[in-house]
Amino acid sequence: MRATGLVKEFGGGGLRRRRPFRAVDDVSFAIPRGQTLALVGESGSGKSTTARMAAHLVEPTAGRIELEGEDVTRLRAEALARFRSRVQVVFQDPFSSLNPRHSVEQIVTAPLRYQGRRVPGGERAFTRALMERVGLDPDHSRRLPRQFSGGQAQRIGIARALAVDPSVVICDEAVSALDVSVQAQVIELLVRLQAEQQLSYLFIAHDLAVVRQIAQQVAVMSQGRVVESGPREQVFDAPQHEYTRALLGAVPRIPAEWDAARRAMVEQQTVQEEMA
């Protein structure tokens, strides 16, 4: 996926001829196949609006989005439906993005019905295989979202995104609502799925500690603009912009023994979930 000169303005006009608010201003990026680009910045920096434009949930005021060489900026009807199968979104709050009245099977297979697809072996077998793939018990396919923990519900959201075999997955603050130990488990899952499927991720986050675990490329946004971008090591170890340095300076430093204890706790919880 490639974006060039993205601009998004809101409001403006009216009797007082108010100027529109420019939430995103001339943002460009490229995500190679099988890699992760993280968009980072404070709340209001424009990163989520950029993600929504990339997902075709919001139409840009100006600029261009390309997917596999095709301009997908202003798709309609059947072309938009095809785009939906190539680009999927994992949202921040798993419970608000899952229909509370639908079972896991209904949720996971909803994109298939939207696309008019049939799967060999039927939807039940398809759902069970996908649940197993994201670390959920296939026997729970008829449960409702409220019967799962937050981390498990986010795995359902990831399974739904994978159902139509996308090439790009946009993770909009996908782990920020989870406990730290559960965050690590979901990040580990995303990394594994990326390696298996050569997925490209646009990863929206404000937590630089999380970004360092998953991203190969980082773009730092402030007031609607990208102020710094480059390989992860370059941005983290030799930041050029004062805003990037300020963000990095705000990241808590965790003593090595605390980090080792945290990792041990994550491994123990993972084993317990697998045995449950």
From TrEMBL:
Q: Which GO terms describe its biological process?
A: peptide transport; transmembrane transport
List the Gene3D superfamilies hit by this protein, alphabetically: P-loop containing nucleotide triphosphate hydrolases (3.40.50.300)
Cleavable signal peptide = none
Recorded GO molecular functions are:
ATP binding; ATP hydrolysis activity
Q: Which InterPro entries match?
A: AAA+_ATPase, ABC_transp_ATP-bind, ABC_transporter-like_ATP-bd, ABC_transporter-like_CS, Oligopep_ABC_C, P-loop_NTPase
SMART domains listed in its UniProt record: AAA (SM00382)
Family to which this protein belongs: Belongs to the ABC transporter superfamily.
UniProt-recorded name of the protein:
ABC transporter ATP-binding protein
Q: Which classification does the entry list for the species? A: Bacteria, Bacillati, Actinomycetota, Actinomycetes, Propionibacteriales
